[in-house]
């Protein structure tokens, strides 16, 4: 989803409203402070959730992962620290609130959902300022057989044109 920074939170709430009841959700951000900030905003909006990032000690991290896996908490705000190796059976949705800046990060984040024959969905928020990452997202979408949104294609085309200039 090509989106302006200040519209991301409302769009996130709209997406959560659609998917939250259907299973667990991970929202990925790029920094610890963004995880904590988004956690507070979601709590204020009446979405019970937890955050998981490198600033949390190992014991607490394990506890958070357990609560998330067993469904005690179904909404997790995380940095990429949680992306690798986290396998949650009822994970219906991954939202890249912060656009991943590497193809591998995108694949590892989006790959948390839709496992073992279950349906899963992934949304990535990308701003015009992050256009340089659009190519990686397009590549991942094409390789997975997913449709590439026209606005993402346009963002990438415009970025490449600017690079030539």
From TrEMBL:
Coiled coil start-end: none
Main location, first listed in the record: nucleus
Gene3D superfamilies: P-loop containing nucleotide triphosphate hydrolases
Domain Helicase C-terminal: 11-156
UniProt keyword list: Coiled coil, Nucleus
GO cellular component, one term: nucleus
Subcellular location: Nucleus
Domain of life: Eukaryota
GO biological process: mRNA splicing, via spliceosome
Protein name: Helicase C-terminal domain-containing protein
Source species: Cirrhinus mrigala (Mrigala)
Record lineage: Eukaryota, Metazoa, Chordata, Craniata, Vertebrata
